[in-house]
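step=predict obj=Methylmalonic aciduria and homocystinuria type D protein n=195
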Amino acid sequence: MASVTYNSSTLIPPRMLVMKVGSSDEIECSVHTLPKPLLREFGHVFSDQYLNFPPAGSASNTGSATLDMLAIPTNQRAREDLVAIGDHIEKEKDRLLNVFIEYARELCMKIRTKGYWADFIDPCSGLPMLTLNCNKVYSEVDGMECLLNYKAYNAGFCKILTHPRWGSAVYPATIFAYAPASIVSELVNKYPSMK
């Protein structure tokens, strides 16, 4: 297993979790404050849309809590090397996408229910799923390199992420939040860990 050194933005290091006890759909998840390179990228992707949450007239729990720009990168181990091509690879990508979307929607709704902004990136398009009128693409590979120090290589016009344990059999996807780090960390830690 390759050794990975995480940066100072790491609040919760990567750990394997599942949405429900008994599920076999594991997700590697961690929580980070946004370092400067990703703050710029975040600004390009979301503009200042996160400041418009919660909508006017709705209740907010922000009070005096310090709000942090947070990234919650996730990685799933694919059953196939995702660099390959074929119908079976596309089916595996669809399965991984569905697992991520279920997790991301649930976590974002938990954060939003507490009165804070959260959104996730569609891994297929690179665009935000919940914030409207955003058309700048977020690079999952660049984000994983910055947040987790995972390596990537170029294959033609495509950057390929390599996970330290799974190689290129990895499906990266990211959730973002503008909320107190303690609340987001608590919500993430409530998901069951895989040992």
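step=describe
The mean pLDDT is 88.
step=end
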